[in-house]
Design brief:
heterodimer, A: about 575 residues, mainly alpha, MetI-like fold, 28 helices, B: about 350 residues, alpha/beta, D-Maltodextrin-Binding Protein, domain 2, 2 domains, seven-stranded mixed sheet, five-stranded mixed sheet, about 40% helix, about 20% strand, elongated
Chain lengths: ~575, ~350
Amino acid sequence: MQFTHTALGRNLVRISVPALLYAILAILIIVPCCMVLYTSFVDVAPFSASRAPNFTLANFAALWRPENARALTNTLIMSVIGTAISMIFGCGMAWLAARSDIPWKPFIHLAGIMPIFVSQLIAAVAWALLASGKSAYLNMILRQLGIPLELEIESIGGMAFLLGLYFTPFPYIFLYSALTLVNPDMEESAAVHGGTTRRILGKITFPLVKPAIIGSMLLIFVFMVEDFPIPQILGFPAGIETLSIRIYSLMSTAPANPNQASAVAVFLTAIVCCLVFTQRAILKGRDYRTLTGKGAQARMIPLGKLRWFAAAFVLLYFILAVGLPLFALIQGAFRPNLFIRDLASLFDITQMTTKNFVNILNDRAVYAGLLNSLIAGGTVAVFGVGLYFIVCYVVNRTDLPGRQGLEYIAMLPLAVPGLVMALGILWTWVAVPLPIYGTILVIIVSFIGKFMPAGYRVISASMHQIHDDLEHAALVSGASRAQMVRRITLPLLRGGVVSAMFLMIIFGLRELTSSLFLYTANSRVLSIVVFEKLDDGSWSGAATVSLLYTLLLAILALVGRKYMRAAL
Amino acid sequence: MNRLAIAVSAAALAFCALAPRAQAQALVKDGEEIADAKLMAAAKAEGRIDIYGTYPSESLQSVLGQFKKDTGLALDYVRLPTSRMYDRVLAEFAAGRLEADYVDLTDLQLIKGWMERGVLAEHKVPAFDKIAPNLRDERGRWYYIVRPIQVIAVNTEILKEADYPKAWRDLLNPKYKGLIGMPHLDAGGSALALYAFWRNKIGPDSWKQLAANEPRIQATAIPVQNDLQRGRTSIATVGASSMLQMIEEQKAPIKIIIPEEGLVAFGAMGNVSATAKHPNAAKVWVNYVTSKYGSTLMSKTGSYGTHMDAPAPQGAGYTFPPQDKVYTLDIDTWSKIVDNYPQEWRAAFEKK
């Protein structure tokens, strides 16, 4: 009898944990996504018409128009090139930072993650000022130097280049975490048996971190397909349409067409599900866990004469992704207007002014927005990452029923374009009978759902590297599961968890699309303040807020770096 | 002693009874009654108003500030682009959670959608008869509260004075090929009004001729302004109020051209919401911005007000023409063109 009770209790726990997680993910992700799915099959948007909706497939039929095919081709070309650029920079820098004797390591690490701080909207405007048309800063410099070359960032190549630059931190963070967790014994053995550095990298190191490589590649590819600020600011004026611009057009015409936009979103979701499925198939049946109970000291590969060349490679990346846009931001923040006559004017201090800073520092909305953003980002970092960790743990480390489905749900928000997902979130939360609509809480809850794919991926990539024999040893030695997670799993995953928390704070500070549908006067976040400055035509105001915000994030990065390095 | 206590109590009661009445004076400005004493008392009891507006808050700052000063009411302004505003307000309204007391849009077709769903309350403002019929609903469900204007602007550092265009028609001249910046038709009510003006006032073929000059088309009005300011384009069709701000505050090298054929105006139109938590305060706001006094304040932001006796906008040494020279789309024309224009516009302007 006693035995039956215990078995029943155990079964209850086995069912209740996934059930609770499914319930949480349902409200955060499934309901908004179902709203989008439903909208794609009817002829009116939820809450928008007085008549009953009719079932239709016309929204999907509209996908096959020639302009959509052209937009899809542009999107694929841009995203494939952009992904390749990101992977080259991200994987290269992660390996250099984690496993080589490259000089200036703290700087290398900073360069790897810093570009993620820069809002893409601001970066795209900054690059338009730097490299589009005769009046662009870099073109002025080239002309002055007598170089017969005019840069034009408003092109598919230019957009792919920028996407590549600004998504590099994702593979960097994934790979860095994974590489620090690879057991160096195998590399040592290969070296002892005469393996060259190149062969060891190709045959041992990179194959061992394949989950992180494929995971980050998938993530950034989908991010690039859906990316909106860069195509809108750089592609639109050049007449280059992408899928995200098509969605934007559907959502910004009057009245907006969320039904067709939802159909595009469902189409994209199907593609992403196929990609996730393929990823699982590639990684299936192989064991990537090398960090076991045996002690390990990461092996640093000597680069010899290439040390300084490698450092220059990272410096070049840093200048392109951070240095030059920062220069454009400084120009914007310290100038009364955007017009610069010639190269001499560009560096003429007498033409500069601190008026914009005085205005911003006296603007109460900036402080209120900053505070709200920090509250939102900080809360997501604690509670969101806590949730992502639990989901990740259940999926990867338990045999609880239904755990595989949790991973698919966690990745769903990735597949739904931001503008459409934001509507799904609005429709959900306006209908949920909880007194949180109109407060900062609804923004926090929407962030937790929306950022789940990135948070889940970062933690999951690290978890794949840690063999569960350490955890089993703890359990065999009498530790409870909670004690084991606290004493073994979490400390080993500290790099991944801190990286995820850090990402959440940054995303919280940057996120605009869902905030735009949910903010009120009392829950205005910093991204809304920047949006309002841009929308008022005040590039100086937006540049000044962005400059201050970048400084704040740089400070956060320096603090965060200490903990992320502790993962070594 | 008892008598004294009774007398003091009576005096205190009388003071309490009279005090609110003493505070609730009618709002009168330059001899014009904007809100009577009863409405002001009710508005003051509510104390505040929440606005969901489409007009950029920076441009409206001076009017919002003066309103707070004149009425003593607190005010919060949430700014959203028209398409987001439409969806958000409908969703909040349908769920019984509309947070705003006053809502507006820049698209007359969408205003119709709100009216059909009962989002907008009926409220006739005191200046109702002083507002042109095409700028208000006859039942008082919406009013234009501000009418920004579209003008031609040039970058004076890039374009020689002799080359400045003088009329809209001049922009069709091939010598301006590649020099002009314009917004996309989907940029909002301002763009729709502008392209309707081209078609109806300049000529039915004007879109094709304009497209032949390969204008630089941006998604919204803001990058069009920025392109002009930094010299990426030399000429642009832009909002006058932003240009005045750039000239006066940012000292940008820009000159506004008031074209010979007249000006194009669009607008933000709205009203008190049917479920307003502070309906009286919202009524005071609508009365205020549609009054001659409020419309005069609007004209100082570089846009036309609603009241027919309000002056034309002024600023940076420019005087704009009187209201009757301004082209404004009425709701019937808007309804007729809104379905066909997008396809025709794409056929004319989009790169093949």
